[in-house]
Amino acid sequence: MPKPQFLAVVSAVVVLLQMTSGPGSGAQPPSTVERRQQAMKDMAAAAKTIAAMFSGDVAYDKTGLQEAASAFVLHGSELSTLFAGHARSESEADDQRIAAERKEFDEIAAGLEELALVFYRKAARAGDVLTPDMRMGSSVPGGGSLLGARPSRTEADLSAIPAEHLFHMMLETCTTCHSKYRLRK
User: Fold this and answer.
1) What is the pTM of this model?
2) Distance between CA atoms of 8 and 98, rounded to whole angstroms?
C-alpha cells in the first residue's frame, strides 16, 4: 500500500477509535501537549512490545509486530505537526529550541517516519515465525555503528537492513531527538 493511502487508513482508524472511546459527545479535543504525550506513550508501548519479541521475552506474534510498527508510522508522520508552534508550559519539549532548529527537528522526524515505514513493510511481509533474516547480525549494514553517525540512505538501502536493526535505528532516532529537544527537569 502506498504511503499516503496507508497513512490515511491508519489516521481514519485512530480518529474512529478516539470518537468511540472518549467520554460523552461533549468531550473537548485533546490539547497539543496531550496529543504529544499520547504519541510518545504509544511509541514507548510499541517499542516495549517489539523489543520483547526480538529478545524472546514474549512470543513472536506477526499481528502484534505489525500493530506496534503502525504506531511508529502513525506518530512518526505527525511529529513535525505536533511540535509546530508553542505548546503550553506543561510540555516536556523545548519548543523554543525546536523552533530555532526547525529544519533539523523536521529531518529527525522525517528520518523516524522513513525508518518506521520500512520497518512496517517488513513486519507486514514477515511470516509466522521470527526468521534469522529479520535478526540483527554482528555487522552494521551500510556502514556506521549502531549508536554512531550513519551515511545518508535511500529507502532501497533501508529495505536491505534486517527488521531488528531497523528497530534499533528507530530507537536511536528517538534517543537523538529526546537528548536534543526534551527539557531536563
Assistant:
1) 0.76
2) 27
**Whole domain around residue 123: which residue ranges?**
30-181
- d(Cα 92, Cα 33) in Å, to the nearest integer? 9
Report yes or no on 35 lying in a domain. yes
Question: Domain for residue 116, yes or no?
Answer: yes
Q: Are 87 and 95 in contact (CB under 8 A)?
A: yes
The three cell numbers locating residue 76: 512518526
For all residues of the chain together, what is the average pLDDT? 81
93 - beta bridge partners?
A: 182
Cα–Cα–Cα angle for 178, 142, 134, rounded to 5 degrees: 80
Looking up residue 51, the CATH number of its domain turns out to be 1.20.120.10
In a domain, 18, yes or no: no
Q: Give dist(CA 82, CA 69) in Å, integer.
A: 19
In a domain, 6, yes or no: no
pLDDT tens profile 42-86: 999 999 999 999 999 999 999 999 999 999 999 999 999 999 877
The CA distance from 32 to 51, in Å, is: 28
pLDDT recorded at residue 92: 84
Residue 15 has pLDDT above 80, yes or no: no
Please state the domain count of the chain: 1
